[in-house]
Write a structure and sequence with these properties.
Elements lengths: L12 E7 L13 E2 L2 E4 L10 E2 L8 E8 L8 E5 L5 E2 L2 E3 L11 E2 L7 E7 L4 E6 L24 E10 L10 E11 L3
Length: 188
């Protein structure tokens, strides 16, 4: 929720949130959850809130969010929910600033039966692990396939995520594969 560019308030502004009844929730796996209020702090022009929803459909679902405040008029917002089992970051910047230092694969913890490979532009696997978890088993720009680990140079790389989804059926053995490219930006 934000105020117009350049506008701030000297007092905090509370906005009540609700899901509009015109939202088509039929594509969702369950009822969405939304924070009931968001506060725009004094001296700021925006406030953040969370919506939790999941989809089992290949079609995007749209949730209409209404807001109300005694201080100002709130325009309706739209949140689009897509069915993505995993969502992989677009890059790794190994500069130790705490942002994108490692390849984050959102939702991977839901699928512990997984394998992640990182391949360089020549098709050579430079990193490989099973049970990738974004914590102990995480790619941070260092090769792990040779006997000596080394920092990888800047450039394009490709990830391959293979997983078996046992969230709906614990006996499932069908492997799913997700892949795309990402960029490593190594320190100079």
């Amino acid at each position: 929720v934000s105020l117009p560019a350049g506008v701030t308030s000297v007092f905090p502004i509370t906005v009540s949130l609700s899901i509009n009844s015109a939202s088509d929730l039929s594509l969702l796996a369950g009822s969405p959850a939304i924070d009931p209020v968001v506060v725009i702090p004094a001296g700021s022009n925006f406030g953040s809130f969370s919506v939790t929803a999941s989809s089992n459909s290949d079609q995007p679902a749209h949730i209409l969010v209404d807001g109300s405040s005694v201080s100002f008029t709130v325009n309706q917002g739209v949140i689009t929910v897509i069915n993505k089992k995993v969502d992989v970051g677009l890059g790794v910047s190994v500069n130790h600033d705490g942002l994108n230092d490692c390849l984050v694969i959102r939702n991977i913890e839901r699928y512990p039966d997984n394998r992640v490979d990182v391949v360089d532009r020549h098709g050579v696997t430079v990193y490989s692990t099973k049970i990738y978890d974004n914590v102990d088993r995480v790619f941070c720009g260092i090769s792990n396939v040779d006997s000596s680990a080394y920092r990888l140079p800047s450039g394009p790389y490709y990830y391959v995520v293979k997983l078996i989804d046992k969230t709906q059926d614990p006996n499932n053995t069908r492997e799913e594969t997700f892949y795309s490219n990402f960029e490593i930006k190594a320190p100079q």
